Every structure is written in C-alpha cells, then in structure tokens.
C-alpha cells in the first residue's frame, strides 16, 4: 500500500526492529502506524516547471458552459481537457476529466 521509495524512510523513522512481517508484534505495528501518520519529509529540489505533473491555470471555468463545454464569451468555441483551469488528484482523474469534457464538447 506504500510507495516502495517510502518503505525504508518509514522503517528508519519508526525505529521498527522487525525485519520481516511475521516478526511484527503490536508494539512494532504501533511504531509503524505512528511513523506513517506522522511522516516528515524534506524537499531538497524540484525538476522545475518542465518536470511538473500539474500546472494550474488556463481558461476560467466560469467562462464556459459545463454541460456543453462551449465558451460563454465566444459562440461555437469549445474547450476540453487541460486547457481549462481544472486540476485534481493524481490517479487518472485528469484523464477522466479530459475524456468527459472532450466527449461533451464533441457532442455539442
């Protein structure tokens, strides 16, 4: 359930002594739970704007009709996907929005 990159960090911060799962007892599990809930990470650097996963901004969603994706300012102009000022959680949500908004624009 955890990203592989976090496992060693959590084990170190928890000071858990168990090396394999069957060695875990209530106390060790408690240490792991506490470490996960109170995880502290330091950000050392970023990949800059070129490496950004999400950049907010774009066409203001109040300027479009959400049912048709048509511009309220310019008739017969439709928008879909990431050109709009919409961002959300990772995990396919932005793909879903891109497909649904594209479908609505295409149908209209």
List the main descriptive attributes of the protein structure presented here.
108 residues; mainly alpha; 2 domains
Q: Beta fraction of the residues?
A: under 5%
- The ordered H/E elements are HHH
- Annotation, overall tally of beta strands: 0
Please, what is the average pLDDT? Answer: 87
How many distinct helices?
3
Name the shape in a single word. elongated
Low-confidence parts: none
Overall tally of structural domains: 2
Describe the protein.
- The protein has 108 residues and is mostly helical.
- It folds into 2 domains: 4-37, no CATH class; 49-107, no CATH class.
- Helices cover 35% and strands 0% of the residues.
- The chain is built from 3 helices and no strands.
- The protein is elongated.
- It starts with a helix and ends with a helix.
What layout of secondary structure does this protein have?
Blueprint: H1 4-14, H2 26-37, H3 93-107
Helix pairs in contact: 1-2
Short description:
The chain is mainly α and 108 residues long. The protein has three helices and no strands.
